[in-house]
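Methods — Computational structure assignment.
A single polypeptide chain was analysed. Its primary sequence is given first, followed by the predicted tertiary structure written as structure tokens.
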Amino acid sequence: MGRLDGRRVLMIIACRDFRDEEYDHPRKALESEGAQVTVAASTTAPATGMRGMTVTPDTRLQDVRAGDWDAIVFVGGSGAGEYWDDATAHALAKAAHAAGRVLGAICIAPVTLARAGLLTGRRATAWPDCLAELVRAGARVADAPVVRDGALVTANGPDAAASFGAALVEAIAASPARR
């Protein structure tokens, strides 16, 4: 049995230009520990990664509820800016945070959490070009590839994708399961 058996994780990818490694490495880490991973995007049409990976989302972002997931993970890549100002993404992240769920974001995706108002006073990291955005949102930016602040896990880019996956596993294993 894996440490995450029975746990459900929603991974949110951009329709175009998600970062392949930032999706693939965490997904493999989560599934290897028994988590059930579902992929959401703004459409269920096949999504294409920056390096050519194709993923067909299981559901549309607007059709999911935060209470159905033990964790919600925003995947980075240049296309992740699609969710920076997306009201649906913000509402989902806020509801997950309010319910004490694990929230993850890698590369430029932590900007979505920052703009949703969820990083104020929290330790976080992101792709170097996005750190000023986190600071403006009140985050305490840490100079590390992966940062965990309670149920919040952030990472700075594709080189940290495997470590990000491991940190997500740890955070989910340490959090209460959804009811």
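Note: The chain has five helices and twelve strands.
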